[in-house]
Amino acid sequence: MSVIAEFTIRAPGLVLTETLNAVPEMTVELEQQMASSDETALLIVWATGGDFDAFDDALRRDPTIESHEIVEELNVRKLYRLWMDRDELIDVYPSYQDIGAVPMAGHGASGAWTRRVRFPERDALVEFQRFCNREEIEFSLNRLYTPGKKESAFHLTGAQREALVAAYDAGYFGVPRDATLSELSSRLDISKQSVSERLRRAQSRLVENAVLGEKK
Questions:
Q1: pLDDT in tens, 120-163
Q2: Choosing a second label site near 77 at 20 to 30 A (CA), which of 49, 131, 137, 182?
């Protein structure tokens, strides 16, 4: 049976490590990752929360990044297309392919990556941990669960948690707000009404289980 693992990995040779260390207030969210047989490795990420001039300068100095370009600019975040230099980085993506794992989400900040990955079985996760040990990658398992089951002690579904995390990262809960429902809708690829409903239900469950639950 497949399992979903949420974990944090950290190593000097991981992609963007130097950039994320240089601009620790910046957070990048993985939008897409691609690799082709001609050794081209491409990363598409949303960046938010930091100084974009410093971020661009750090990208130019980062040995794991061959080149980059800005695809889209919004009020508080930018979409980057990054071409990776495979000769200079620890390439984790092929290890996922070798064991049949499917990356689902990921974000980087302060020199570390937090990933959510579906593994075909627990043994595949163990094999990935062995890969990390061989490559001297610091691995910390944050959560392990079976697909389809409630994701946390607060009884959030996967979709509800995804909406909460996206809203938090985008600044939707800030005062004043740094993101709108329309931006979250685009980010999650669902309608504004669906985003609103997921957030309301998620917040209701958090109150019920985290706040009211303390009285039980």
A1: 999 999 999 999 999 999 999 988 888 765 445 566 777 788 88
A2: 137
| Whether the Cβ atoms of residue 84 and residue 177 lie closer than 8 Å to each other | no
Among candidate residues 43, 45, 11, the one with its CA nearest the CA of residue 113: 11
> Residue 154 is which amino acid?
F
Residue 97 corresponds to which amino acid?
Answer: Q
Burial 199-209 (b: 16+ CB within 10 A, else e): beebeebbeeb
CB neighbours of residue 132 within 10 Å: 20
Whole-angstrom Cα distance, residue 64 to residue 125? 25
Q: What is the DSSP letter of 11?
A: -
Task: Using a pLDDT cut of 90, give the percent of the chain over it.
Answer: 39
Query: Which residues, at least 6 apart from 90, have a Cβ–Cβ distance to it below 8 Å?
Result: 11, 13, 14, 135, 137
Q: For the chain, how many residues are written?
A: 216
